[in-house]
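Thread title: Can someone regenerate the structure for this chain?

I was given the following input by a collaborator and told the matching structure tokens would be attached. They weren't. Posting the sequence so someone can regenerate them.
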Amino acid sequence: QAMRLVTHNMMRSNVKDVTEDEGYPLVIEPSSVTTEECDFDGDIVRELLTKMNYPALRAAATQVDQAADLPAELPSTLDDGLLRRLHHVLLQVHVVEGALRCPKTGRRFKINNGIPNMLLHEDEL
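Best answer:
Regenerated them for you:
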């Protein structure tokens, strides 16, 4: 498995002197993205959306070329088609290789085999 966009939505940069707002959302610089099918459950998607930052999710989907059918703003009523599209973006899109970039410092965290390396150098602590 690789990093899903649902995971990305909860990550931020912890570089020294970067506030929570300044280090979020991380910019995805993908070099390899795949999709893996999984069973659809609209209730799970609805529950995940209560914990998500939708503008950050839409930006991430754009960065991996998956935002074509996503609305600019999340509507208050979600029809089955939109739930299925959100399910795809949240759970089926996997970033396998690339990097996550801190929006404030530009620090790049490599993604190898789907695992983002968020370890900091000693001078970044």
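Helices lie at 5-8, 42-49, 54-63, 80-92.
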